[in-house]
Amino acid sequence: MRLPTRFLTTISVPLTVIALLLLSSAVLIPPARAAGFTVTKTTDTNDGTCNVDCSLREAIGAANATAGADTITLPAGVYQLTIANAGGVNEDNNATGDLDIKDSLTIQGDGAGTTIIEAGTDNTNGIDKVIAVNPICTSPINVTIDGVTVRYGRNSQPAGAADFSFTGGGIDWCANGSGSVFTLSNSVVSDNTNVNGYGGGMNMDSSSATSYTANITNDTFQDNRTLNLTDTATGGAINMFGSGPTVNVTNSTFSGNLTTNPTSGGGAIYFRPTTGGALSISSSTFTSNTAPGIGGAIATDTRDAASTVSIQTSQFTGNTATNSFGGALDLDSTVLNTTPFSLSHLKITGNTAGISGGGVYVGQSNVTMSKSLIVGNSAPDGSGIHKSVDTGVANVSNNWWGCSTGPGAAPCDSATTSGGTLTFTPWYRDLLSAATSPVAVNQSTSLTSSFLTNSTGSAVPLADLAEIIGRSVTWAATHGNLSSTQGTVQSAGTATGSFQATSTGTAIISSQVDNDNNAPVSSNVLSLTVNKADTTAAITNGSSLSSTDSVTGQPVTVNYSVTGAFGNSPTAPTGNVTVSDGTDVCTGTAAAGSCNLTFKTAGSKTLTATYAGDTNFNASPASASASHTVNKADTITTITSDAPDPSVTGQSVTFNVTVAAVAPGAAVSPTTITGAVTVSDGGTNTCIATLAAGAGSCSLAFTSAGPFSMTGVYGGDSNFNGSTSVTNSHREPRRHNHDNRI
Ligand SMILES: [Ca+2]
Ligand SMILES: [Ca+2]
Ligand SMILES: [Ca+2]
Ligand SMILES: [Ca+2]
């Protein structure tokens, strides 16, 4: 006995006094506490006494015989039942076969991993069910079983036996009166079989109009089964019958349980209260349970308008209603429920029904389901959910169907009805958006994939997205690169990433969760326009150009650059850049970075570079200008011939002259060397040759005898400097033209 906390904290007294008080109270006011029995051996014996020699059967017998609630301490060990029923006939006084609990009792095991109660050594050879609680259902008792494994029960009593011995393969609980409580906690119920009846792992029932509570807390029901092919054999793990049951299933796991009868459902749980009844399931997991009949995991058939069902924050995966309805859940009634069955925060994935409602089947019942995930279930009709033609309303709005387009054709889960009322709008969706739209080539934008609004645009509270958070997100994009993408839906209800455009067009960007689309038909797929990026061109050796003169016709290297508005990576501008002073032009590719410009005339030049653009980049405006000076090129003048030579006095002599540019200068078409060359002996013998394309001729007649040393003097023009030829010797002319000397 323990003092109330408030007593200890408000009264300051020495510890010795408290100890004395405790001792006094224990002595003077003995509590009406239960007797305690401790099991001392694992062997199944029945000598009628629980003392230092005490089997589990003997302890239960002693507790049954001791008035009031008792506690049995069951240490670690494997307690195999070996005292078979005589002739296989049921016995309910704890003498043979199953352990019969007939008074309020707590069995405290050491833990499900270490304290094991079994009726055989595998699921084929059990001698009976394992535990019958209130077997003849005449006592209003409360029983708790904690920290044990109950396995290998095998109930072979005939179906429909008047003593109801055929119910429950592992544990059988029958409530009597009003308010009885049965609790199974921290325990495992596995590999139990009911050969002829219902409740493979456990059965719950009541004897008359009553109410009872069953708490299934932190338990695992695994691989329990019913085998009857013709009689009622519902509830592979737990069958729930009776009047006014309040069943609370919390933090429990149901896996691999099954029924065999083609018309018996509830691979894990079958809930059929005859009056009232409240089934509440939370934080539990149902995996790979199977029923040929309705409800691979759970089936209901409520019989009272006041019956309620609540299933919250639980997972249903891989359950199968082989030939029937509701791969995970079949929600039906005989009397239509008034308060809708309430389902939320469920993950219903990968369940299968042979006919309809791969995830959920709603028959004659009112059902509200929201904040749940219905993904990857399958059935010929209504892979996600199916509502029958019966009365009742299935309101299943605000759920995630694996696709942002809502329930629909595979791979999305579908929602169908045979004529009953089914509402699934709005639904949860993934909305992908870009912070910047449109973008240009090489421009980046952040992306947000968000579940924070539903299909009608209404806000979805973050707390309602618990089942979505953590789902994988797969990203894809055309016309660009993705980076920093978050691979799961984050706790903020979003996943983010970044997109950098690499080519013009319409980028298709998708963030797929579950079975969502990757084509632009859905809110999770973004069509983002990618425009050409603007460009800037520049002459990059402008200072060199301005400080280093060239001459007419000399090629000059001009360096340039082209820069996109968002850089040149990953995509670089291609195509040509033209450098021009307005007259003279050179062109090179953007990649080449330079071209050689030949100025055909002398003078001060002003240069600009202009990029022509390509499929990803706009043409640039003219760059900032660079200045450059072109000086006149030097020339060389040559008298190429004089004829006739020799000549006679008075005879006309023709001088041919050329003027050529001296490298690096050149006369580049259409520029030619123009002007005139004066051919002269320095005296009066002179003629002027006008140049055309750098050549010309003139004639003169010597009036006296020579020889003469002739030079050609070119005076230059606007592009070329003047020059003087070397001396041309015109030989001594004769006075008469009879001199044949040369
Ligand atoms: Ca004994
Ligand atoms: Ca007792
Ligand atoms: Ca029995
Ligand atoms: Ca028995």
How would you describe the overall organization of this protein?
The protein is mainly beta and 742 residues long. The strands form ten sheets. The chain has a 21-stranded parallel sheet that branches. Strands 4-7-11-15-19-22-26-29-32-35-37 form an eleven-stranded parallel sheet. Among the domains are: 285-427; 433-453 and 472-531, Sandwich (Immunoglobulin-like), CATH 2.60.40; 535-631, Sandwich (Immunoglobulin-like), CATH 2.60.40; 635-730, Immunoglobulin-like, CATH 2.60.40. It contains four helices and 62 strands. The longest helix is centred in the first third of the chain and has 14 residues, at 15-28. The N and C termini lie far apart (153 Å). The structure holds calcium ion (CA) (4 copies). One calcium ion (CA) binds at residues 47, 49-50, 53-54, 58.
